[in-house]
Amino acid sequence: MTTPFLPKQAPKFHPGLLTELQSNVSNDVARYQISLIPKLPPNATIHDNGCGFGAATSEMIASDTIPKDSTITATDVNPLWLDQLRQSARDENWNDRVKIDIMDACAVTYPDASFDLSVTNFVFTGLKDPIAAAKHIQRTLKVGGTAVVAIWNDISWLEPMLAAHYKTRGKEAPLPPALCLSLTVEGFVKVLADAGWEEEKMQWEDLTVWLQTKNLNDYVRLSWGFLGMPEGGWTVEDEERWEEALEAMKEGIRGNAEGYREKDGEVGLRMDARIVVLRK
Ligand SMILES: C[S@@+](CC[C@H](N)C(=O)[O-])C[C@H]1O[C@@H](n2cnc3c(N)ncnc32)[C@H](O)[C@@H]1O
Predict the structure, then answer these.
(1) Using one digit for the tens of pLDDT, what is the confidence trace for 188-245?
(2) Helix or strand (DSSP H, E) at 115
(3) CB neighbours (10 Å) of residue 49?
(4) Which UniProt keyword terms apply here (predicted)?
(5) Cβ of 51 less than 6 Å from ligand 1
(6) 81, 51 in Cβ contact below 8 A?
(7) Domain range annotation of the chain
(8) How far apart are CA 192 and CA 14, in angstroms?
């Protein structure tokens, strides 16, 4: 088997890249969501569904409003992120509160009524069967329980990344798999309805967060290197046109007055989340 080609400018993959890519944003959203949920019962059971490296889990553990006797089951399909979360759990002494399992959000095997709170952040957009995932959230929630789900409504750096893709690969080039965001907010509302969630049990919230980075060049390189890989893998032409892609992306980011800010040596990239709080 031949080793896939990697442009010399691309960041070498390691699990910490997701942490760098997400920067502060998932944590900021999770902190806001915690402020929306009703008081949890003693010994509450919590599911962090599609947990990644555990942004929501770490915020819930740090929060004073989440009871200290609650337990969190953190699940994901990607063992690399789970290994990273296991490491954090060891380093931070969370092992008595956090159980970590590999689990597909579309085929959750926990029994009905397992959780008082279920959190599913920025997972739905890439799911093969989002209706099944929404049904599992409902099925595994206890009566009186709460689920919070977040998806991105607008990502200021996404259009610039698409512009870089089309500029360097041509207008007909298929989108990189990581940028095929199949679920819009409208589609998500329909998914919840199709899964049987009743409209009167939903509360919708919008939240703007600013992804913070010290260095736009580094962030653009990281995000292009992580998400920009085309269908079929990187090509020699991607390497040759790497800088051109990055310049196009930076130009698009800086040109979006509402999506870009620079303050005290730090760059902010706007990201708008749509959050739904569901009650069972
Ligand atoms: C953008 S990350 C968000 C991670 C985390 N929820 C957060 O807010 O930081 C999306 C996560 O969804 C996970 N994921 C994708 N498909 C999944 C599936 N079918 N079941 C469970 N997790 C999935 C990915 O592995 C990744 O960790």
Answers:
(1) 999 999 999 999 999 999 999 999 999 999 999 999 998 999 989 999 999 999 999 9
(2) strand 115-121
(3) 26
(4) Methyltransferase, Transferase
(5) yes
(6) yes
(7) 16-279
(8) 34
Q: Does the beta carbon of 156 sit less than 6 angstroms from any atom of ligand 1?
A: no
For the domain with range 16-279, which CATH number is right: 3.40.50.150, 3.20.20.10, 3.40.50.620, 3.40.50.1240? 3.40.50.150
Helices (H), 23-107: 25-36, 55-62, 79-92
Residues in the chain: 280
Q: Is the CB of 179 under 6 A from ligand 1?
A: no
- Name which residue sits closest to atom 25 of ligand 1, judged by CA: 78
Pocket test for ligand 1, best of 103, 120, 123, 274 (most atoms within 8 A of CB): 123
The token pair at 60 is 């819930």
Closest C-alpha among 167, 155, 159, 168 to residue 234: 168
Determine whether the shortest distance from the Cβ of 105 to ligand 1 is under 6 A.
yes
